[in-house]
Amino acid sequence: MGGRPKIALYWCAGCGGCEESVIDLAEDLLTVAEKAEIVFWPVALDARYRDVAAMEDAEIDATFINGAIRLDDHIRMVRLLRKKSKRIIAHGSCAHMGGVIGLANLFTPRQLLECAYRQVPSMADPPGPLPVEGGDGPRMPELLPVVKALDQVVKVDAIIPGCPPPPETMARVIDDVIHGRLPAEKTVFAHRKALCHECPRLDSRPEKIEITRFKRLHQTRWDPDVCFLPQGLICLGPVTRGGCDARCIGANMPCRGCFGPTERMDDFGAGAIACIAAMMAGTDEPALAQLVDSIADPVGLFYRYCLAASVLGTGPTP
Ligand code: SF4
Ligand code: SF4
Fold it and tell me: Which of 191, 193, 201, 214 to mutate to test the pocket of ligand 2 (most atoms within 8 A of CB)?
């Protein structure tokens, strides 16, 4: 690399938490700005689409993209960034697997707009037009029929998983880039093994678990030193890639899978269902059906971060 490495950051459909994981670099951001040239970062810099379009192909060393692909504008932008970047890094669960934004695939775009602009109690009465109805105003970006993960639109070279990713991981990857060490293709900045292997509660996880009733945290007095699973609380640590330092477990929250599947699994949600189903006690079908019914919001639980990237992720028929 000649001169300072060039970095870009872009935000598609997300909550802003991944941008925050960059801001969390705090004073180290000044070092990044000194050692690298941040050529595009809409949250912080006034650079436009046309500025990126004017760059040479592969001029940017690494582009960090967070958020899911929700709008036609996202497709246009990430394709341009792909062309202009040596490495595209999916930054956070939404870019990696569609994230929580991907749960919108349970509804059509029209249903989503009706809900957001007409049905929520805080909406003005009578409600105004939906954004898609346009009028004479500026062109609004269009909702795609379904939310996509970044690699369903452009080739992704590396992944920083997490919702949001740990600031230490962000710091390490950015430090690598500013020192000219671009990530090898298919790098996932996480551990290969499942989260359970780094969990402080692992010793209390029995070899065989038989769950007779699923509970939610507010329904039970749980032991904070014991694995959630034998207590009937669903934790997805056995199927989730480690590397987050078990931060949620440390805060007394079961794992919900934001780091995505371990290498041996193709579909995170299916793997998570199979894992928990294998722990259900008994063989009596009505009792098993009752046990399944006691799982609140199964899609939101097993596919919370990965519906868009799953085999189910194509959304309802409009
Ligand atoms: S991965 Fe999490 S923190 Fe990042 S944009 Fe998506 S919802 Fe927000
Ligand atoms: S299932 Fe959850 S609580 Fe139990 S050992 Fe694995 S990560 Fe820890």
Answer: 201
How far, in Å, from the CA of 308 to the mean position of ligand 1? Answer: 14
Closest residue by Cα to atom 5, ligand 1, is 14
- CATH number for the segment(s) 6-101+142-188: 3.40.50.700
15 lines ligand 1 (CB under 6 A): yes
Domains of the chain by residue range: 6-101+142-188, 195-302
- For ligand 1, the distance from its centroid to the CA atom of residue 38, given in whole angstroms, is 22
Q: Which token pair is 108?
A: 């059509």
* Centroid of ligand 2 to alpha carbon of 246 (angstroms): 9
- Cβ proximity of 257 and 306 under 8 Å: yes
Judged on CB neighbours under 10 Å (0-12, 13-18, 19+), 121 is exposed
Determine whether the shortest distance from the Cβ of 249 to ligand 2 is under 6 A. Answer: yes
DSSP 3-state of 208: coil
Q: Which two tokens stand for residue 114?
A: 């009706």
Question: pTM above the 0.90 mark?
Answer: yes
H helix and E strand count, the chain: 11, 8
Candidate from 10-14, 93-97, 111-115 with smallest mean pLDDT: 111-115
The string of pLDDT tens digits covering residues 207-255 is: 999 999 999 999 889 999 999 999 999 999 999 999 999 999 999 999 9
List residues bridging with 188 in a β-sheet.
159
